[in-house]
Write a structure and sequence with these properties.
Low-confidence stretches: 144-153
Strand content: 5-15%
Radius of gyration: 21 Å
Shape: elongated
Structural class: mainly alpha
Distance between the termini: 63 Å
Number of helices: 6
Largest sheet: 2 strands, antiparallel
Length: 153
């Protein structure tokens, strides 16, 4: 017989804290993977909106992000309170959540280190070729491959 730790209800306060800081992890903790995907998609839409639509409205983007975090925290708290799941899957346990968050962090840092890096120019030091407050995405792999082929020739 398996341990009884699998059958414990999710803690309401852990769900609320996870929902406030890492919205998809909060939903995975309360065994709602479809809501986790929805909050992840919403977070990506907000990030892209902050980058491309709300260039001057940083306060508005931050307010939207905070509002979504508070809504998700309340949502996760209520789902944990009313949870009737008998067997919690691996992704709702602590080691599953840590593994998922670590995997996303490695993916994000690896992408930023080796493939692309977003940059923002806050001043007019590059005028007239680059406007102030411009966002650029730098491709990193092209130069490295060229240098390696030039070095080996």
């Amino acid at each position: 017989m398996e341990s009884t730790a699998i059958y414990r209800k999710p803690s309401k306060w852990i769900a609320a804290v996870l929902g406030l800081f890492i919205q998809p992890a909060g939903m995975l903790y309360v065994v709602r993977p479809s809501w986790a995907a929805a909050y992840l998609a919403l977070a990506l839409i907000i990030v892209l909106g902050n980058m491309f639509v709300l260039r001057d409205g940083e306060l508005a983007g931050n307010a939207i992000t905070l509002l979504v975090a508070i809504i998700c925290a309340i949502h996760a708290y209520r789902l944990a309170r009313d949870s009737r799941v008998l067997r919690r899957p691996w992704y709702s346990r602590w080691y599953g959540l840590v593994g998922i968050v670590a995997g996303f962090a490695v993916l994000a840092l690896g992408t930023r280190t080796f493939l692309f890096e977003p940059l923002r120019f806050p001043s007019g030091s590059m005028t007239p070729s680059i406007e102030p407050r411009a966002h650029l995405i730098v491709k990193k792999w092209g130069m490295v491959i060229t240098e390696l082929t030039a070095f080996t020739s």
